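To the wet lab folks,

You asked to see what we're planning to order before we commit. Fair enough. Below is the target structure as C-alpha cells, and below that is the sequence we designed to fit it. If anything looks off to you, flag it before the synthesis order goes out.
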C-alpha cells in the first residue's frame, strides 16, 4: 500500500482515526469551554457565548456592557503600610486613653480582657486601626463590637490605636515540656499551601496587618479561625487568612488556638 492510499478516506482505518481524533477534540472543547466554566458556582454567565469567552480569556460581554459583578460581601477598604501609625504623638496616646474608658468594660482597664473579648494591650497599632475601620464600614461585623466602632471618627480610631499599642502586651509563654509547638505554627503545611503562622504573626516574622496573637483567649482564637474558614469573616486583605484557615484541620485549629493562648498560671488567675 503506497502512502497515498494510506491517507485517504477510502482507507477505513484512516477514517476511523480521523473521526476519533475530531470527536475527541470536540469533546475536550465542550468540556473546557462550556462545561467547566459553568460548573464554577461563584461565576455567573449571561449565556453560552459568555462562558466561552471567559474560558478563552477574552473580556466577557456582561462585564464590558457596564454590569460589574457584585461581591456578596463587603471587602476591607483599609490601606496599611509598614509606616501606618509607626510614630504616634504623646497627645494622640493621651486622647486615646480617655476614649478607651468606653472600651474598658469588655477589653479590660489595661487592655487585657477578663471576658473572651480580644486583648488590645500591645496589639500593633496598624491592626487596631484596620479592625476598627472594618467594623465601622461593615467589612467585619460582630453584634457586640460593631456598635462601638460605628460612630468613631478617623482621628478617634488613630488615637485609640496609638493608646492600646503603647500598653504592654502579654508576652509569649511556651514552656516546651508542657506545650510542644504545633507543626502548623512553625512549619505550616506546605502540601496544603499553608505558610507557618509564625511567619506572619510574629514568632518568625511579622507582616504588617497580622495581629499579635500571644495570650489571646483560646475561645476567641478558635472562633476567628472558624469564621475565616467558613467565610463568615471576610475582612482579611487578599483572603490571606481565609486561605490559611480553610486548609486547617479541626485538630490544627485547636492546637494553634491552645498554643497562642498559653500563659503562665498566675496570669490566667489574675485575669479571671
Ligand atoms: C460590649 C463589649 C465591647 C466593647 C464596649 C468594645 N468592644 Fe471591641 N470587641 C468586642 C468583642 C466581643 C470583639 C471580638 C469581635 C469578634 O469576635 O469578631 C471586639 C473586637 C475588637 C477589636 C478587634 C481586635 C482584634 O484583635 O481583631 C478591636 C480593635 C476593638 N474591639 C476595639 C474596641 C474599642 C476601641 C472599643 C471602645 C471604643 C471597643 N472595642 C469596645 C467587645 C467590645
Ligand atoms: C500570610 C500571612 C499569614 C499567615 C501565614 C497566617 N496568618 Fe493569621 N492573619 C493574617 C492577617 C493579615 C490577619 C488579619 C486579617 C485582617 O485583616 O483582619 C490574620 C488574622 C488572624 C487571626 C484573627 C486575629 C484577630 O485578633 O483578629 C487569627 C486567630 C489568626 N490570624 C491565626 C492564624 C493561625 C493560627 C495561622 C497558622 C495556621 C495563621 N494565622 C497564619 C496573616 C496570616
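Sequence we intend to order:
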Amino acid at each position: 500500500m503506497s502512502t497515498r492510499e494510506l491517507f485517504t478516506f477510502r482507507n477505513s482505518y484512516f477514517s476511523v482515526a480521523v473521526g476519533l481524533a475530531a470527536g475527541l477534540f470536540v469533546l475536550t472543547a465542550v468540556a473546557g469551554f462550556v462545561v467547566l466554566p459553568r460548573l464554577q458556582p461563584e461565576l455567573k454567565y449571561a449565556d453560552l457565548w459568555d462562558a466561552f469567552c471567559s474560558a478563552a480569556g477574552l473580556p466577557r460581554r456582561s462585564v464590558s456592557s457596564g454590569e460589574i459583578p457584585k461581591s456578596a460581601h463587603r471587602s476591607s477598604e483599609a490601606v496599611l503600610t509598614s509606616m501606618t501609625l509607626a510614630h504616634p504623638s504623646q497627645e494622640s496616646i493621651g486622647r486615646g486613653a480617655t476614649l478607651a474608658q468606653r472600651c474598658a468594660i469588655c477589653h479590660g482597664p489595661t487592655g487585657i480582657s477578663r471576658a473572651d473579648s480580644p486583648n488590645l494591650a500591645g496589639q500593633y497599632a496598624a491592626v487596631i486601626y484596620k479592625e476598627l475601620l472594618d467594623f465601622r464600614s461593615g467589612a467585619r461585623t460582630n453584634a457586640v463590637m460593631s456598635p462601638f466602632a460605628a460612630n468613631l471618627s478617623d482621628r478617634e480610631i488613630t488615637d485609640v490605636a496609638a493608646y492600646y499599642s503603647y500598653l504592654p502586651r502579654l508576652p509569649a509563654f511556651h514552656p516546651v515540656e508542657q506545650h510542644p509547638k504545633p507543626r502548623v505554627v512553625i512549619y505550616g503545611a506546605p502540601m496544603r499551601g499553608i505558610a507557618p503562622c509564625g511567619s506572619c504573626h510574629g514568632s518568625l516574622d511579622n507582616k504588617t496587618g497580622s495581629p499579635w496573637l500571644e495570650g489571646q483567649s483560646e475561645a476567641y482564637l478558635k472562633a476567628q479561625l472558624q469564621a475565616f474558614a467558613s467565610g463568615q469573616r471576610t475582612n482579611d486583605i487578599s483572603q490571606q487568612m481565609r486561605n490559611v484557615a480553610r486548609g486547617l484541620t479541626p485538630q490544627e485549629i485547636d492546637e494553634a488556638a491552645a498554643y497562642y493562648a498559653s500563659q503562665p498560671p498566675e496570669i490566667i488567675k489574675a485575669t479571671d
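Structural context that might help your review: The mean pLDDT is 87. The pocket of heme C (ligand 1) is lined by residues 102-103, 105-107, 117-118, 120, 123, 128, 131-132, 142, 144-145, 148, 160, 211, 223 (CB under 6 Å).

Thanks,
Computational group
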